[in-house]
Amino acid sequence: MRINYLIVFVSDMQRSVAFYRDVMGLPLKFDSPEWTEFETEGVILALHVSDGPNPETDRPQEHRAGQCHPGFGVTDLDEFHERMVAKNVPCIQPPKDAFGARIARYADPDGLAIAVSQQGSAG
């Protein structure tokens, strides 16, 4: 069995599409007002309009039951981190070695924590 897609519920589709496409650099498969998909290696990242805004957008959603935190891999985490910081993306955890990999974490526009690791690294 494999995971085919991951749905992220968003409060503002246009803002979230701009974040995942323009800031994160994910290739857009298609978009619509209520459903958007990005093609990544192995899994589709889908955005779906939520019932309303996240009442806690001032702080990233960390470890609450029922949440999922997407994880992405990049070839150069330091370059990716510089780009994210330059685009004023909230950084939850700067790049560091953890769990045998080099990992950083950021918050999407609705406060969802996103992990990004350097592919091919081991600590």
Which helices and strands occur, and which strands form pairs?
Elements: E1 5-10, H1 13-23, E2 28-31, E3 35-39, E4 44-49, E5 71-74, H2 77-86, E6 91-98, E7 101-107, E8 113-118
Parallel strand pairs: 1-4, 5-8
Antiparallel strand pairs: 2-3, 3-4, 6-7, 7-8
| DSSP summary, beta strand count | 8
- In what order do the strands lie side by side in the largest sheet? 1-4-3-2
What about the largest sheet?
Answer: 4 strands, mixed
Strand content: 35-45%
Distance N to C terminus: 29 Å
- Structural class of the helices, strands and pairings? alpha/beta
Order of helices and strands: EHEEEEHEEE
Principal-axis shape: globular
Task: Determine Rg (CA atoms, Å).
Answer: 14 Å
Description:
With 123 residues, the chain is of the alpha/beta class. It has helices spanning 13-23, 77-86; strands at residues 5-10, 28-31, 35-39, 44-49, 71-74, 91-98, 101-107, 113-118. The strands form two sheets. The protein has a four-stranded mixed sheet with strand order 1-4-3-2, covered by helices on one side. A four-stranded mixed sheet has the order 5-8-7-6. The relative contact order is 0.20.
Question: What's this model, at a glance?
Answer:
The strands form two sheets. The chain has a four-stranded mixed sheet with strand order 1-4-3-2, covered by helices on one side. The protein contains two helices and eight strands.
